[in-house]
Amino acid sequence: MCELPRLDWFHYNAPRDRSAGDDAGWGCVYRAAQNAALAVGARVPSMATMIARLGGYGALRQRHAQLWIEPAQAARALEALAPEIRARPFVVGPRGRHWFQTTEPSDYETFTPAMVVDAMRRSNRWAIVVDDGIMGTTWVPCGNTVVEIDPHVRSQDALHMRLHVMDGPSLRARLDVGLMGAFVTLRDLPLP
Questions:
Q1: Does 16 reside within a domain?
Q2: Of 40 and 60, the one with more pLDDT
Q3: Residue 107 domain flag
Q4: How many independent structural domains does the chain possess?
């Protein structure tokens, strides 16, 4: 049975971090990074702090679409702003046509789906910032499954988020399609 801790997960326009204004439509990877930090028990940087760290704060007042980031950038921001975090960007599966809009292939290690599943099984103290080329989410371990935390939709349930539980076959299907990601864990733990 999967029972996630009852954390106040981040979502678009989360009341506790409105530092970047209205982030609907462009802030999902930032929110996924915040949820990854929260899931591993690290300090959670604000969106404005991550944007400034990545050199985009001036654009915050201009065009939000210029602030779009991918998992390798989220990994760099988390490691810089929460020194207790270590992150490992990776790509898996066939390359998506919407990948590498703001990063380069050299920013990522290339994994097979089996490598990702194996890394997940070695520890239960990780989270993954995921970007499939269309939307960013966070994956966290929960029992023998993985839960996807979707920052796009806030529901009225106790966890305040839309959660999707993925078992072995559904997880493998997502990996086979391909995605960009970044494993996130605490610095004193081995990276998956």
A1: no
A2: 40
A3: yes
A4: 1
Does the residue 191 lie in any domain?
no
Contact of 161 with 150, CB cutoff 8 Å: yes
How many angstroms separate the CA atoms of 18 and 15, rounded? 6
Phi, psi of 63, rounded to the nearest 5 degrees: -115, 120
Look at the block and give the residue holding tokens 């678009």.
Answer: 12
pLDDT band for position 155 (cuts 50, 70, 90): low
Residue 72 domain-assigned (yes or no): yes
pTM over 0.85: yes
Rounded to a whole number, what is the distance in angstroms from the first to the last CA of the chain?
23
Whole-number Å distance between alpha carbons of 36 and 119: 16
pLDDT of residue 158: 40
Selected residue with higher pLDDT from 78 and 15: 78
